[in-house]
Amino acid sequence: SSNEHKLNFKKSKEACLSYIQDALLQKQWKRAAEFLTCYVESLEKDYSRENIGPSEMIWRIGTEILWHHSHSSMKEFNCFMEQMKTLGVKRYLKVCLEHVFHLLCNGQIDEAYQNLSLAESWRFGEQTAIQDKEMKLIQAYRGLLDYYSWSKQKNILLEQGEDGFSDLAVEQEMHSCFRKAAVNLKEIIKIPGVWDVFVKCYVDLLEFYGDHNEACQVLNEYAYNSKFPANPNAHVYLYQFLKRQGESKKSLISALKILHDIVPSHELMIDFNIMLQKSKKKKKRRLGLEVIFAALDYSSWKENAKAWSCLARQVKRIVISEKHLDWIKQEWNSRKDWWPAFHFSRYVAKRNWQENKSLAYEKALVAGILLGKDCKYFKHVSHQGCKAQLKRFQMLKKFVNRHNPVYLRISG
Amino acid sequence: MEFPAALFPCYFGAGPPREEGGPSPVAGWGEHGQVLEGGPGRRQAQPAFVPRRGATGERWEAADAAAVPVLLPSAGCWIPSPAPQDILYRNGLCRKLQAGKSGATLDFAKQLGHFFVDHPEDAFGSLGRLLHKNFYLGSSKLKVIVSRNSTIRMTALVEDIDRLEARRGCPRQHLASRLRWFSHLCRDWLFEVPLGLLADCLHEELMLQWSNLLFDDSLTGGALVWLPFGEGGTPMGRLVHPGGQAMNHLYFQDVVLEELPRTRGSPAQFELSGRIRQVAAARVNGEDFVGVRSDYHCGVWRVPSRTGAAPTPLQVIRTDVPASCLTVSPHLPGELSVCTQSGTVYLWNIETGLQQLRCDPQTMFFRDHSPWRWSDFTAHPRVLSCADRTGLQCLDARAPKKCHFDLFKVGEEAGCQQGERVVLPMYLGTAHPSQYLVTTQFSVYVLDERLPLVPILKWAHMMKAPPLFAHLMPGNPGRSHKVLLGASCTQEILLLQYRASFWGVSSGGSQSACQLAGTPQKLHSITGCLQHLPTQLPHRHHLLQQRLTAPATGMAATLQEDGPHKSMLVFQLSEAGDVFCQRLTHKAAQPCAPPSRDETTTAPGSSPLFEAPASSPQGLDAAALRYRRWLRAFSKAYKEHPRHTWTPSLSQRRLFTRRDLEGPVGPSTLQRQMRQRLRQAMWEGGRIQCWEPLAVQPPPLLQTLEPAGGLDPLSARLTAAWAGDWDQWWEERTSFNVAQRQRALRERRRRQKRARGRRSLSASFTSSLTYQSELSELSDAGPQVVSPGRPPIFSQEGSPPAGSPPVRRPLTSPVPDEALLSSQSLRCRGIPKERRKTLRDYLSVLAEGAPEPPEPPGSQASQLCIPSSQSQLSSASQPCRKRPRMGF
């Protein structure tokens, strides 16, 4: 009966698919390709109502094979993609986008641009939400490519400018590129998402044309709109923009303070700490200590010599001045039960000494002040340093011995 | 580690997952996802783009065609956990119902019945004693005595029950009215245990077993760990794995990594009080801390990373509710995190004890029934992640109630599908301090805790079962990190590569976004070696298959660098306690010409084991030897425990009535002889190995079988059917009256044929003997000549030469005469031509009394396998198991 036939057909289809899958997972591209040619038959009697129909499977598998097959060429790939675009209306934009990505990765920027323009003009009935998103992405990528050609022409003009004459045609073209890019880029960054590349390019365009207010607004929106994910880069871009604009220390600090709140382990925290240490306000210096302590909590900072030297410098300054020892005490309180095992064990001391002597020096100073002169880390490093007759370490030993009562006040 | 200067673009939405769909077999192929400007090339006129997925990765190729056993199977016999057919109801009617509607029907009645049969004392103990006097079970009539009024005869009832059992599964099964009457009468008072309560408990247990069969999350994380010695680089390490029949022994086994991993010395062993579900480890300050989780106990060991240094048990905790997770801190020595199924998360420090971080039986983001919880460490030693099926949260151990943030949510944020659930989260600290791996049944995500909720990498893994195990092998700077995903019941292992950073020029050469490198690769599973093993006898093949298809319960791997040669060793542990291993070798990719790879020359996996890699003959031999030893130990383990195997027994009470069994008045001499033999066999506790009256007394049997006149129609038909000319017989019978004249002629022809038919029957029997002899010919011990003093047709249970050749030679004549071997005599015995030579060879070997050098048959020689060990076993076990049935 026809029902049975359908069932059998379905079964053999599934078997074929599993063979293909097996071959793909073992990187046997030729074998997979042979099976795929059989699987194409499944298009003829596509009764399936599944989410992913045979046409999508053929697109995905075929693409994967053509990426890796030793005899495939870009021409064949393009040809296959054109066929796949006609195979499913719902997937048209997605296939276009993937095609463009492949062209971009292979350096065929112009072809990619053409494809994007074509896809942008495509219309078919009402768009679904997903298609809408895909269309926006297509426009955004076109904007990105427009930006790149703008920046190319800008460079040409700048070079020519040095020579003293300018080309009007190039300039006009550059401006038209700017308009095209700006329109598309502006659209996508309104929608919640991660748009690092698009934001950067758009801000670059705006800055070039002197629209600093718009740029600032865009960056603020990207960083502080609660519908967007908490992207550290958004704050970094804002900080960098403010720095470029020569904004006041205060606004820079407030931008970094927010970054510190969301990502205490961000690499900009060293700059932040240095900036705060230089400040004359007590509150800011206090914040600086907090920032550097918090950063050193993270395992990624464990062997960061620069961060340890920041902490050592600040701690040393406090100890010498004997003012604000309570700051250290407060920070140390929540860490004294695990920092010794985490940072200041004998094993770590040995390793630090072997691998990075200046790191060992800074850490030993901090350990000596926080844990006293009997702490394992300090003892090991200062012993090794004195044995090697390094003057720095002898000084360190003297310093810690002299300030040992501080330790009692901190830990008490 | 610096944060990437630019991330791949993506949309961000909030709320429940919108995308419909389910598992798709191909969803992971053919997509770049997104592209980002990067890579060296910004200085040129055009920007260079890199894809999120589809960048070239490292090339790893399997060194062998299958995984190879590392450890010998343990001595005990493995008892497989229940299979679906054990607890599912199987009935024609039910199957029809099932086909229409999804959902399985559990065989509740059978399991309840098992309880009454297995624990009669608990079920009916005291009432049984009370009623003892009032129930009469004898077969004779009740005598009219004093107790007549208080005693009833139950024999008929018992017979009814027996009959019911005999007709189990029969569609025409009707309840006997007497049974129904009895159950109606005593249902309320007969059982010791309240029936409702018992049924509730049983039902609960059955549901639990069934859900475990569908998906057993107690195995999450895996129970196999590899601890390398020293700082890595040394080709030695320690394998920590569970073992023993109940998987309650913890072994620390030193292993040397050569071409194949080799165990060194005997393992340090600890007996624990529960089945080991998970073994986790982390290295802190040069020492390994190993956490072990069973249902109600968690323990921690400290293991110095030196050869021969003994592991020290440090502390054990007991939980009231089964623990579902145990992870070891990579930051602080002696710190672990424990989760229980009641939704409690503890930070466990061996010095300060347990600190409860969270206690919430509800799931975090939306309601899900699963009590599974997981927890792991993050880049901050005081911040732990907590997971349930709906997502991940990070909480600060110093203020767990106040300080927490959502790391991953099953929802639109991560672009999840409907019905997607977290299966295994893992901290990727050794590769990147702030990255996290989360697997679901559909996809695998990489998260960065600095950018929560938005996966920096997502890929549909297309595995058939959810990945319960994951293993990370961090790559050196500039190289890709390798992640292995492992599933339990399908034993799948998938190798993925990702790059946490590539050279982004736009940001001045700093970190750039995470991308998936290369294509995923499927590694060998334990089951995969089955097809490469030599052909087995069916029952042994079944045992082997059962053993090798046991669900995986753990996975471990290590990278080994020996100068320019890099290789990866992947270990897989099965529920039966087997540890198999495979080696992958790194092929240096040509940097300028990536399309030069051609799989025609090297197609891993497509070639059978032991035949392909001509490059490494040592490896080939070693692998074959490994298999040989493993198979031998495996068969030995099963031979030692024959009582586990089901011995066939058949009640004859219901098959024959007593009158049937009584037979004629005077038994014939043959019958007497048979009975005597039977009695002797029972007396000796042996079995009749070959019930062959023909051999004992050929002439009388021939006479009895050969009917003097015409047979009754049934026998005639059967005989004809055996001879293969049944249709002719039918024709003859229908045209019975046609020609009286031809009848005599046909009668003669039929007799001839019948005679031949009988011979070919016996020939088929002989051929099975020859098969046995072929096997024993290959065995190590060689065939042993049976002493003529004892009748060789009996074999005692415990006697070692159970596989003594069951030949007819000693029966027919004490010395093998030439006549026996002549082809003429063999032909007239009805032995087919092709078997005569084998039989002759075999008999001649016997005559010499010494084994010939084993000459493997052609088919086996090409496979280069292990003929001796298992054929010896099979020849030993085969007759023991099969023969008695033939006798009855």
From TrEMBL, chain A:
A biological process term (GO) from this entry: transcription by RNA polymerase I
Domain of life: Eukaryota
Signal peptide (residue range): none
InterPro entries on file: SL1/TIF-IB_Component, TAF1A
Gene Ontology CC, one term: RNA polymerase I transcription regulator complex
PANTHER family: TATA BOX-BINDING PROTEIN ASSOCIATED FACTOR RNA POLYMERASE I SUBUNIT A, TATA BOX-BINDING PROTEIN-ASSOCIATED FACTOR RNA POLYMERASE I SUBUNIT A
Protein name as annotated: TAF1A polymerase
Organism: Dasyornis broadbenti
The gene coding this protein: Taf1a
UniProtKB/TrEMBL annotation, chain B:
MF annotations from Gene Ontology: RNA polymerase I core promoter sequence-specific DNA binding
Pfam families, A to Z: TAF1C_beta-prop, TAF1C_C, TAF1C_HB
One GO cellular component, as annotated: fibrillar center
InterPro entries from the UniProt entry: TAF1C, TAF1C_beta-prop, TAF1C_C, TAF1C_HB, WD40/YVTN_repeat-like_dom_sf, WD40_repeat_dom_sf
Stretches for region Disordered: 19-46, 590-617, 774-888
Domain TAF1C helical bundle: 542-768
Residue ranges occupied by any TAF1C C-terminal domain in the UniProt entry: 822-888
Low complexity bias spans: 858-879
Domain named TAF1C beta-propeller: residues: 290-429
PANTHER family: TATA BOX-BINDING PROTEIN ASSOCIATED FACTOR RNA POLYMERASE I SUBUNIT C, TATA BOX-BINDING PROTEIN-ASSOCIATED FACTOR RNA POLYMERASE I SUBUNIT C
Name of the protein in its database record: TAF1C polymerase
Source species: Dasyornis broadbenti (rufous bristle-bird)
